[in-house]
Amino acid sequence: MHPPLTLHKHPMCAQIIEEFQKCHLDHPFAKFIGECTDLKIKLDRCFRQEKALKRKANFEQSKKLRDRLQASRKETAETS
Predict the structure, then answer these.
(1) Are 47 and 70 in contact (CB under 8 A)?
(2) Any residues with CB less than 8 A from the CB of 24 and at least 6 apart, and which?
């Protein structure tokens, strides 16, 4: 199963999403017997890469926030 295939939410995978949707339109019955499986595999790999990049960016952002909070706590403790 994959997340909703909206292009604005997955800009990295836009081309593969379009190809996958076109495959489903071009092969309405063959899609059930594996006609679009290769594209599905590519799409899953792309989503994994996209998620890894987002996870890394979120981790870096949380690290900066944590450092800022620790500095603020240290400053408050020193003034008290």
Answers:
(1) no
(2) 31, 36
Helices (DSSP H) in 3-36: which residue ranges?
Answer: 14-26
Residue for token digits 């792309």? 46
Q: Is 9 helix (H, G, I), strand (E, B) or coil?
A: coil
Q: Is the dihedral of CA 51, 53, 57, 60 positive or negative?
A: positive
- Residue 1 pLDDT: 65
Using one digit for the tens of pLDDT, what is the confidence trace for 30-39? Answer: 888 989 999 9
Q: Nearest Cα to 13, choosing from 39, 35, 38, 37? A: 39
Distance CA 25, CA 30 (A): 10
